[in-house]
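Posting for a labmate who doesn't have an account.
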Amino acid sequence: QVQLVESGGGSVQSGGSLRLSCAASGDTINMMGWFRQAPGNEREGVAALDRFGTWTVAESVKGRFTISQDSAKNTLYLQMNSLKPEDTGMYYCAASTVSFRLLVSSLYNYWGQGTQVTVSS
């Protein structure tokens, strides 16, 4: 069993920054990632890393978002810079105990409740 709790969402103007956090507890995790979903849109993979340090980010956020982990605190972070209105959505932290395919959402078997990010123009 894995429990995930996200925090750090909020409202910001275009060009601003936010840092999302995800506190994890429970069983050994193979990979963790961030996904987002805007109303009417499909869920989109944003960034992810595995327990060996391999990471990836979506093309839409490359150069602006950075994923990292504090192993001592079992916490995953998503640093979001140069935010755009199209980044608006509900952001979910997810964890997988069964896969290393970083941005395949169907392979994540644990999900947090989400934190809202709103970017205004």
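Reply:
Got it, the structure tokens are right above this. The chain has a mean pLDDT of 96.
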